[in-house]
Design brief:
The chain is of the alpha+beta class. It has four helices and six strands.
Length: about 200
């Protein structure tokens, strides 16, 4: 359908919100990684109306170990691009990457609640200061976005050679042992022992 393709081309700004759903403020009480469960999913008008046309995807995460700790992750679906390391991705690509990580399949946003409620995932909580107060909000969902994948050891030298523009080389053979040094028993004092021939 054409509207689904539109959603895929738009973008999402990742932040958090407590005002979107009309609930009282909630928060985590310390920074770090917290095992959470998705408790609710709400599609709402955008928090920042200057990004119209837009909608927000709001996901409420609750700590599995301490249900009194929870917060909302918010993804804004709009035509904006990300910032910093995400500046080359649309906000839609950024948000759908997170939604896929949570297990959302397809493009029908009305299915988000059905597919995501009860899903367990790690949330990284970051502390920030504002007006003399410390806030603990969801910085990102899931494990760190970077995990190195090892290259097959049999391909490392060939890959390195292709980067450097040289042929892959086999390990160098050991140098031959040096001949033992002997002195000339017929040499005179001051003679270096080197023969002229």
């Amino acid at each position: 359908m054409e509207p689904v393709r539109e959603v895929q081309r738009v973008s999402v700004r990742i932040t958090r919100t407590t005002q979107q759903t009309g609930e009282s403020s909630m928060s985590f009480n310390q920074a770090g990684d917290v095992n959470c469960r998705v408790e609710d999913v709400v599609i709402s008008d955008p928090k920042f109306p200057d990004t119209l046309p837009a909608i927000d995807v709001n996901i409420k995460f609750v700590s599995i170990n301490d249900p009194s700790q929870s917060d909302w992750w918010r993804g804004e679906i709009s035509q904006n691009y990300g910032k910093g390391n995400m500046a080359t991705m649309t906000q839609a690509e950024i948000t759908f990457k997170t939604l896929r990580k949570l297990g959302f399949a397809g493009d029908d946003l009305t299915e988000l609640k059905t597919q995501l409620e009860g899903v367990e995932e790690m949330c990284h909580i970051k502390a920030s200061e504002k007006d003399g107060k410390t806030y603990h909000n969801i910085q990102y969902v899931g494990a760190s976005s970077y995990a190195p994948q090892a290259i097959d050891p049999n391909q490392v030298n060939a890959r390195f050679a292709s980067i450097m523009g040289t042929a892959a080389k086999a390990p160098a053979a050991p140098a031959p042992a040096a001949a033992p040094v002997t002195s000339n028993p017929f040499a005179k004092k001051g003679d270096t022992g080197k023969l002229p021939f």
